[in-house]
Amino acid sequence: MFKKEEIEDYFRLAIKLAEKGRGYTLSNPLVGCVIVKDKKIIATGYHQKYGGDHAEVVAIKKVKDKNLLKNSILFVTLEPCCHYGKTPPCTDIIIENKFKKVYVGIYDPNPLVYKKGVATLRKKGIEVEVGFLEKEIKRQNEVYFKYIKEKRPFVIIKAATTLDGKIATLDYKSKWITNEQLRKEGNKLRCYCDAILCGINTIIKDDPYLTCRVLKNKKIKKIIIDPNLKIDKKAKVFKENSVIIFYHKKDNKKIKILKDMGVELIRLDLKDNFFDWKEILKELYKRNIASLLIEGGARTISNALKAKIVDKIYLFYAPKIMGKGLSFSEDLSYNLKNLIKLKEFKIHQFKEGFILEGYLKK
Amino acid sequence: MFKKEEIEDYFRLAIKLAEKGRGYTLSNPLVGCVIVKDKKIIATGYHQKYGGDHAEVVAIKKVKDKNLLKNSILFVTLEPCCHYGKTPPCTDIIIENKFKKVYVGIYDPNPLVYKKGVATLRKKGIEVEVGFLEKEIKRQNEVYFKYIKEKRPFVIIKAATTLDGKIATLDYKSKWITNEQLRKEGNKLRCYCDAILCGINTIIKDDPYLTCRVLKNKKIKKIIIDPNLKIDKKAKVFKENSVIIFYHKKDNKKIKILKDMGVELIRLDLKDNFFDWKEILKELYKRNIASLLIEGGARTISNALKAKIVDKIYLFYAPKIMGKGLSFSEDLSYNLKNLIKLKEFKIHQFKEGFILEGYLKK
After folding, report:
1. Does pLDDT of B310 surpass 90?
2. What angle do CA B204, B208, B214 make, to 5 degrees?
3. Which of A342, B19, B165, B186 could form a disulfide with A358 if both were Cys (CB 3.0 to 4.6 A apart)?
4. Strand order in B243-247's β-sheet?
5. What pLDDT does B76 receive?
6. Tens digits of per-residue pLDDT, A37-56?
7. How near does any CA of chain B get to the CA of A200, in Å?
8. pLDDT at A196 over 90
9. Is pLDDT of B174 > 90?
10. CA-based torsion, B13, B82, B155, B341: positive or negative
11. Is the CB of residue A128 less than 8 Å away from at least one CB of chain B?
């Protein structure tokens, strides 16, 4: 009916569409789909935002004459859901519209859906084939897989560094090691995440806004690690979007001020002068945060690396050498045999620097 | 007669041929040439090694029937010489063989030749055009330009580093931060240089051979900075090729042992516990060394960077993070405004790491 290359071409398009949702879907996956009738594309769709219509529904709604859908073919990157979540099951609407066949990229790892969506369709006589561009679709949904399977956010570290690994001078100055072009790329990365996390030292020294400038209407949670509630209520970080502070010290006066400002406060126990990352991640998981970007500073980044909770790292290199300074690996110490290793790394070169992207080897 | 693209194609071939001499020409330039008759290439040549025939002579010698050369066209990347050096003037042999026209890539910066070679040919009625692929040819001969114009070697730093700029652990262990693939690339870079320089600490800690394995019959000078003559006469560095030691302490016994081993010793004054790089470079210039590769360790590299005598840097990055350790920028200290900056940098990605290549901004 379709050649393998044709099928893959439709999936490539569906993946491209799915990508448009990046940054907006929170704990939902990125999904794209294409509806084909008589070898012509009659509609496309993607999951646009958390709580909104699923990709299949978006595409189906675009077809005004529902008769057209009868005997048409659906290509969808992720297995259609068969349960009531924020929206009704996609399998119902596919069955109702009498699709002839559904090509599914990968099974949904969510136990509520896994293989059940496909079974539901088959039971109603709809042909289903599964397993196309699996590697690409899984990679595209690495955040979702982590969130669903390990019940914690996918953790990314980002650092803007010199060639010798320095993210700030010894007196904590870091504005700006990289240039405008790389900062824009860094902001894009931030926009693609659900939450951004910083240690209190970075908030005090840099007083950053921590906002997204590249994606429209993007809301990001700002997470601050501030055991002693040292944060100033006038800090710029409070200007936009919501702030969550992890703290320990019971400073009731400060707690009241912050709560009145609408800040969410989460109290955790201290261990070795830091919180247990697993507890932080658990709290964020509960709040639907599927991807967490740790942006700084040296201590917080080192600490996360040491705790082995980091999934991916982005190093934004400026073509500069600093010498003495604060390194993103400041507090780490390994011998040659057990250095932290990256796998599947890629380099993106720009005129004024380059970005290294890689996954942490476990 | 020829279209611009045809001319450039011949020059591209000549540049490619010239490249084959890299590593063998010492203070001589890399030169390639192509002889064309009736739009057909009848011979090619390149300068193969210091003291050997120049590219033009190599090509001309290949043509057995010298009548063929009459009215032929010569494409040569560098202006033909017109003086007696190690070999007779190339202009003589071009004139003698009645070439019709000579296309010259760039003028030879050597004052003995500069524009004189071209003038000699024109005086004898040979047409000459100058200025083709100048940027590429100058880049190919960056070592020669530095050597001729500034009367010192072109200085390259190479360091094998982690992503956080560490070249060894705090206890000086560095074998091997990068993998076999990158080490081979590193050896290639070494082979392309005339001399390799290390501090005595690297010799003591690593006991390296400092040999070239990638280029056949390549002789490299090994330069060691050893103010107090701490070197062990059994050090592996003495196994192959010749060694030059810069020293200060008048240890007559050690001096005799080393001299008997055939080591060249050069005594310099100490300033701030180190030698003056300008004096080191002057001595190397006198010895025909046009390109110097500084390979380590942390102190020597930092010191060279601080002295601003470095022209180019190669950082061989392993996708690893070390934390505490020795950085190649160990002894440097700058504020954000005067960091060392690289320009025209390039990244070469490999499976197990990447190489950054760039020039130091002055």
Report:
1. yes
2. 165
3. A342
4. A320-321, B340-350, B353-360, B312-317, B154-161, B291-296, B195-199, B221-225, B243-247, B264-267
5. 98
6. 999 999 999 999 999 999 99
7. 22
8. yes
9. no
10. negative
11. no
Q: What pLDDT, in 10s, does the model give residues B257-274?
A: 999 999 999 999 998 888
Tokens of residue A267, six digits: 């109290």
- Closest residue by Cα to residue A273 from A303, A229, A230, A308: A303
Question: Where would I find the H helices in A134-234?
Answer: 134-140, 142-150, 180-191, 200-206
- Chain B residues closer than 8 Å to A343 by CB: 319
Look at residue B220 and tell me whether its pLDDT is greater than 80: yes
The pLDDT value recorded for residue A123 is 96
Instruction: Closest CB to A339: pick one of B162, B336, B342.
Output: B162
Would you state the pLDDT for residue A175?
74
Residue B330 is among the residues annotated as catalytic for this protein: no
B324 reaches A (C-beta below 8 A): yes
Specify the pTM: 0.93
Sheet holding A40-46, edge to edge: A40-46, A32-37, A73-78, A101-106, A127-130
Q: Return the structure tokens found at A184.
A: 């824009």
pLDDT at A320: 96
User: How large is the angle between the packed helices A4-19 and A55-62, nearest 10 degrees?
Assistant: 100
A164 touches chain B (CB under 8 A): yes
Tokens describing residue B319: 């996708």
How distant, in Å, are the alpha carbons of B281, B282, B283, B288 from that of B151? 9, 8, 10, 10
Please tell me if residue B331 touches chain A, with a CB cutoff of 8 Å: yes
**Residues of chain A contacting B340 with CB distance shorter than 8 Å:** 320-323
pLDDT digits (tens, 9 = 90+) for B121-147: 999 999 999 999 999 999 999 999 999
> Which position among B56, B185, B295, B330 bears the catalytic label?
B56
CA distance A140 to chain B (A): 22
Using CB atoms, which residue from A162, A175, A346 is nearest to B339?
Answer: A162
